Amino acid sequence: MAYCPKCGIQVEGDNQPCPLCSFPIPKVNEEDTEGLRVRKFPKTANPYPAYMRRVLNRIFILITLLVFVAVCLMFYTDYIMNDRFTWSRYSNLSVFAGWVLLFFSFGYVQSYYKVIIGIGLNALILLFGLDVFDGKLDWFMPLAFPIVTGVTVICVCYWSVIRVLSVRSFNVIGSLFMTLVILAMWINFFIQSYQSETNLWTWIIVTVLQLIPVLLIMLVVKYVVPERIKQKIARKFHL
């Protein structure tokens, strides 16, 4: 709609001149008025995440420079003292593994699945290098590789169950406890196998029996306890 600039009445956009005072109304295209429109409430933006990201980037760059200097100093000191690289290989490999953990902890990888798998691969590389530096693969394949791989797979499965089934409140605690028990059984099995023990299943059976009360409690909480009480307890303990 348009208005007559002389008498102020509202007229149709195609009325020229004004039907009341015969004043010639200039025709203005709507495209020309787009730039004149002012947003009443400008879009808000939170600068804090971007600011924290810049701060974390600077801290990580500083840590990376310090790690690089430390690695060079250890290599140099080891070579000067022994005419070859001996203890510095172990130290620098451990420092590199710690730097990779910092990389994940600083939020450069957003996917939890990639973080879990990346930490598992980092642990495998660290343990493989430590075993190789001893001169032979003695304990990596029978002990370290199955334990780290199993822990990584179990953690990925736990996170998948939490996300897919939308597990909340008490069930998160129960699922976490069962996951820790499964991890303990997995680790204990390979440790006992590596030590050539005969009773491999005794401790595992005892541990599995401990899961039965946890499963019963989870079923009671889910199907027996009233929803009002569950919500009250969840608010009380911030679950």
What topology emerges from the helices and strands here?
Elements: E1 2-3, E2 10-11, H1 48-82, H2 87-105, H3 112-133, H4 140-164, H5 170-194, H6 201-223, H7 227-236
Antiparallel strand pairs: 1-2
Helix pairs in contact: 1-2, 2-3, 3-4, 4-5, 5-6
What does this structure look like?
Keywords: Membrane, Transmembrane, Transmembrane helix. The chain crosses the membrane at residues 59-77, 89-108, 115-133, 139-161, 173-194, 200-225. It holds the Pfam family DUF6320. This protein is an all-alpha fold. Among the domains are: 1-39, no CATH class; 49-108. It is 67% helix and 2% strand. The protein has 7 helices and 2 strands, in the order ββααααααα. It has helices at 48-82, 87-105, 112-133, 140-164, 170-194, 201-223, 227-236; strands at 2-3, 10-11. The chain has a two-stranded antiparallel sheet. A hairpin with a 6-residue loop joins strand 1 (2-3) and strand 2 (10-11). Helix 1 packs antiparallel against helix 2 (87-105) and helix 3 packs antiparallel against helix 4. The longest helix has 35 residues, at 48-82. The chain is flat and about 110 Å long. The two termini are 57 Å apart. Mean pLDDT is 80; it is low at 32-38.
Protein traits:
239 residues; mainly alpha; two-stranded antiparallel sheet; flat
Number of helices: 7
Overall pLDDT score: 80
SSE order, as H and E?
EEHHHHHHH
Model regions low in confidence, pLDDT < 50 over at least 5 residues? 32-38
How far apart lie the N and C ends? 57 Å
Largest sheet strand order: 1-2
- CA radius of gyration is 33 Å
Q: Main β-sheet, in a few words?
A: 2 strands, antiparallel
Helical coverage, percent range: 55-70%
Number of E-type strands: 2
Helix/strand class: mainly alpha
Pfam family, one: DUF6320
Transmembrane segments: 59-77, 89-108, 115-133, 139-161, 173-194, 200-225
InterPro entries: DUF6320
Keywords: Membrane, Transmembrane, Transmembrane helix
